[in-house]
Design goal:
The protein is an alpha/beta fold. It has two domains: 5-43 and 288-401, Aspartate Aminotransferase, domain 1; 61-284, Aspartate Aminotransferase, domain 2. The protein contains 13 helices and 15 strands. The protein binds pyridoxal-5'-phosphate (PLP).
């Protein structure tokens, strides 16, 4: 079969593939535990459900404008003022099919083939592929000290004449690291002094722990929003547990937003008006759900830190936010894909290999599951990783056997 060069250069999303594998095993009745997930188990806000139901029962669900409905753009304007202290207007906002599409159409609007996009390692699995889809080149930047936070000087060293944009995700998927104010200030200054786009993927910005406060990149910008190359991406998937609603947005200068809208108009048209109106209701409604989700994630993070701390050889630096703990398992296997498959096969636990995020030897473990699943999943991992452990482990009706050397 003949496929395009682009199609041949893009791999399947590792995380979506693992979700499918999990569903298949679960469907076969296997007592598998998913510690790799990137979506909360909590219910979405009631205000969103009520609004969606109301609109659906009218039976009149039509096309929405390509760049989004005005009431939702206005809600994003209020959100931007509340959480970023910046006054935007609807012309600064595009509503997309998730933060994923907002990032994608933004990249399509700014990149030409051969351009480069710089981002820190570890990175969200989709960044390299999204950049590649635009015919451009991903430039991941690894911290020289081997840690999870490249220095601003390391980001700067990766910039060439071909660099078009820097892409920052803070707090970060997979590491949970929230970059410091100095780092964000540095990257804003770097982009403004070099005339580069800066995409801030803030999808987890309210899901932070230990009494941290979200950082607004705008406070470091010297350029007015309407002339700025700073683009803030956000959405409801994570903070409101609304992954299936597929709504995200970008805030940026009106020319860029217009270009993104044109691309989106030919790609998918506007996202469903039912989903847009229900997201507006969530943004304007009771916000307790965000705090509650955050507290449960923080408590699960603490649980995971404690449990992984009991496995000799695992190194984990304390995540500041997100749904993830990114732990160094290289003492057991430097090949994270092999280790993750081993744990799935022998202990029936799903983890995500660090290599998918640019750091082999690591595994991403999710804080989204129930404390019971986390305890049980890590109990099984501990058993499988301990060469001197018992020859079998009882898991419900099933007996896991130590049938490997
Ligand atoms: C860092 C990051 N950015 C963007 C997204 C996409 O979010 P959405 O569901 O809004 O498309 C995700 C989802 O996993 C993510 O982890």
């Amino acid at each position: 079969m003949s496929l395009s060069h682009i199609a041949r250069s893009i791999g399947e999303s590792a995380t979506l593939k693992l979700n499918a594998l999990f569903a298949e095993l679960k469907g076969r009745g296997e007592p598998v535990i998913h510690l790799g997930g990137g979506e909360p188990k909590s219910k979405c806000p009631q205000s969103a459900i009520d609004e969606a139901t109301k609109l659906l029962t009218t039976g009149e669900v039509r096309y929405a404008p390509a760049s989004g409905l005005k009431p939702l753009k206005e809600a994003v304007v209020r959100y931007t003022e509340q959480f970023y202290g910046t006054i935007a207007e609807p012309k600064n906002v595009i509503i997309s099919g998730g933060a994923k599409q907002a990032i994608m159409v933004c990249l399509q609007a700014i990149l030409d083939p051969g351009d480069e996009v710089v981002f820190p390692v570890p990175y969200w699995v989709s960044y390299p592929e999204m950049v590649t889809l635009c015919g451009a080149k991903p430039i991941p930047v690894r911290a020289k000290d081997g840690g999870l936070r490249p220095a601003i000087s390391e980001i700067e060293s990766a910039i060439t004449k071909k660099t078009k944009a820097i892409l920052i995700n803070s707090p970060n998927n997979p590491s949970g690291v929230m970059y410091s104010e100095e780092f964000i200030a540095g990257v804003v200054e770097l982009c403004e002094s070099r005339d580069l786009y800066l995409l801030m993927d803030d999808i987890y910005h309210r899901l932070i722990f230990d009494d941290r406060k979200p950082i607004s990149c705008y406070q470091f910008s010297k350029v007015a929003l309407n002339d700025s190359k700073l683009v803030v991406i956000n959405g409801v998937s994570k903070q409101y547990a609304m992954t299936g609603f597929r709504i995200g947005w970008a805030v940026g200068n009106p020319d860029l937003i217009k270009a993104m809208g044109n691309i989106q108009g030919h790609q998918t048209s506007g996202t469903s008006p039912v989903m847009q109106q229900s997201v507006r209701a969530a943004l304007d409604g009771d916000q307790h759900c965000v705090g509650e989700l955050c507290r449960s994630l923080e408590s699960n993070r603490n649980l995971i830190i404690g449990l992984l701390g009991e496995i000799d050889g695992v190194k984990l630096s304390r995540p500041d936010g997100t749904f993830y703990c990114f732990a160094d398992f290289s003492a057991f296997d430097t090949d994270s894909t092999a280790l993750s498959s081993f744990l799935l096969k022998k202990a029936l636990v799903v983890t995500v290999p660090g290599v998918e995020f640019g750091m082999d030897g690591y595994l991403r473990i999710s804080t989204c599951g129930s404390p019971e699943d986390i305890r049980e999943g890590i109990r099984r991992m501990r058993w499988a990783l301990d060469d001197d452990g018992p020859g079998s482990l009882q898991v419900g009706n099933k007996t896991l056997l130590r049938d490997w050397k």
